[in-house]
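Run folding on both entries below.
>entry_1
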Amino acid sequence: MDVLLSKVAGIDVHMDKLAVTMIIGDFDKEIKVEQFECLTFTEDLRRCAKQLLDNGIKHVAMESTGIYWKPIYNVFHAIGIIVTLGNATHMKNVPGRKTDMKDSEWIARLHRNGLIRPSYIPEEEFCELRQLTRHRSALVSDIGRIKNRVQKILEDGNIKLGVVLSDVFGVSGYAVVRAIADGVTDAEKLSQLVTTNIKRKEDIKAALTNCLKERHCFLISELVLQYMYLSELLNRVNGRIDKKMQGYSKEIEKLTEVPGISKTTAENIIAEATTKMEVFADDRKFAAWAGVASGNNETGGKKKRAKTRKGNPALKKILIQAATGAVKKKNSYYRAKYNTLTFRLGSKNKAKVAIANRLARAVYHIIKHPSIRYKDLGEVRVDTVEQQIKRSITKLKNLGVKVDYYQHKKFVDAKRDVLVTL
């Protein structure tokens, strides 16, 4: 096997310590192996980096273990050491021989022979954007949990506000919640705060007739304070993200033209995927990296279905959420393709992942090529009358209904003037 690097180091990463193996030796000479351990405090990492440089080692490889690799990368990268971050699944040693030092030696030997595929580490700017957008998502989740807890307490006090209002934390709903937090429990007074147009006005008072106790008002007041505090934090984070995203306004504008992608979703996509599309060979590789492409499972010349790979979990979640919105747009390509895939695959979840794959590939081209903009192909392209008839006939046959094939063929010929083969 060809040796590509004469001086390398492999690191087995843990929370509190590192196992380091240095391999030094020219290609045609006997190699020298040295091993040592060090702690993960910043000063210890700097001493470790100095020891590596003193031995002439500038190439280091390690596994992407949780977030524990980041402090090491921060210190080593600043000093000038070239860090190769590898997927732990691709670097496993032989079972039954696992120790920390043997793992680090195995990593070093793999790196010496160029057998570790480096993971993509974005630039500092995008690392900051990732942290900000992920923090925003966490805040949104926290606010959602607060809303659910308020709803449970209202139900416990016989308040059926969710029955008459679509959003309990809308203008009218939030006014009622604030009033309850202030100790107001009279249904007549509470119903006057509802200004939303409702068909049956009498339902408002019925929904607000309650059995609230002092404890309910106290708990709701506490939750309202949490809601206000988290909402303020969310606004501050949104303001910081807006400042950081000013240089990507054109990309965000083009991405929001795609069904299912809002301004927030576009910002999340840029933070996770970055705008450096040249690091990916093509759109399919990008979709695989995002975790919305199926793996390969071929044996004996036969290709079998394979699960999607892990990829980037955050980006995968974003794309599937966008796909969920895209399939709801009427007369769109994604909606028609989703219906076709749901019928063929027999699973809505699998169909959504397939739509997320197409969204990922569209995002790749939109970001990479400044002149490309999204253009919806329309539902006729994938959901023609003939295909609708095929699906309907299949459903009827599965239900035991006999279908006259020639009548349907004649109908399609008259409408479309085409030959249909069912």
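>entry_2
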Amino acid sequence: MEAIIAGGSQDHLVSSLDFRLKDDSASYVTDRQEISYFAPSNFYSPTGVKVLRFSLAGTGFLDLSSLVFSALFSNDDSSKALVPLCQEANSIFSRMRIVIGGATAEDLQYFNRLSHTLFQCMPAERQEMLGALGFIGHTTPSGGVAGVSPSEVAASGSETILMQPFASGLCTQPLWLPLFALGSGGCVVELELCEAGDMCNTNSSYSTSWHLSDCRALASVVTVDSALMEQYAQHLLSKPFLIPYRSWTTVMNALPDSSDWDVSVARSFTRLCTVMATLSQADSANSKQVNTLYSPASAAGDTIQTTLQAGDKKWSIYDRKGAAQQYYFLMQTLGNLNNPQGTISIKRHEYDSYKYINAFDLEKVPQASMSGQQMSTGGLLTLSMKGVGTSTSNRPTRCYVNCHYDTVCEITASGCSIHT
């Protein structure tokens, strides 16, 4: 043992005995401002103008990780309260689109359901934090849990809500966006409102009429000194800025009235990293596409078998049988399995009923970038499921397949290109 230690280890000065200043200063950053970008209208509703458009322009660097969207959410009914179905404010937007330099960098369909799927994969503490920005107010809803359940919006009442776009790969990657390099196209973010009753309880006792006003995007913009800006300008003349990130595409499939079925996604991906599939039934007053990730296991038994075929490769080699195996692979996909600090909020009985996520990790080396499954040659992605319910009443009617893939935004002096 002593010989192994002597031959294989090397002494270093521990941080508690190192009294030097750290060499990680950034004096070239001369300013950081918190900017508000306003939407062109002051009134948006599901029955009127539905698309909020924000033009994020400037001469500095936009910190996309700081980007949030703020609005005053108003209940239009003068006699009934409005009951949101989700904690997070993402639930009111059905689509998010980001355009950089005239090129579409992200187009997230079913944005509210995708956000809710990823929201369920977070620890409960982070959910409460994001919920506090959204629909978790200072009042406890009837029959709800304080700090967890969405609060009612009183008749003719209003609340300021903030939405963090955590489903956006661009807004969760660490690089700052060089606004000065984007030309007249700049960076444009579009948010499309869902239908009025999609985000709230539609029982006749409650309101389903609402609108948004005072809509703005909040973000931090960083300025660097002239010497560094000159270096970036010279760099841009000969070489591009490359921003790697991972984005999502979602395909919704209507299902046959059968316990066994296949759904396919016909799209090419240079590197496909993750697939998450969720199920749903027809909407009810308080269980809708936006807040219910349906599983028939609690009603029809733990009989679900699933497998994914990507080109000529299969995950897993044999079918994944039962909720325990599928829950295990969800934790593995999220990187939480062997992480003592990694947790998700989904409990087993919830997974078997209304928080079911069927996840597949297609990366060869999850710790490395660009190691996903290559599907640029047009291979078909097919999800097969068996034993999904026993009768029409407990079978799902829709399957949402969320594909997570590597993307690179290339910014040059002549424009912007997106490589997927």
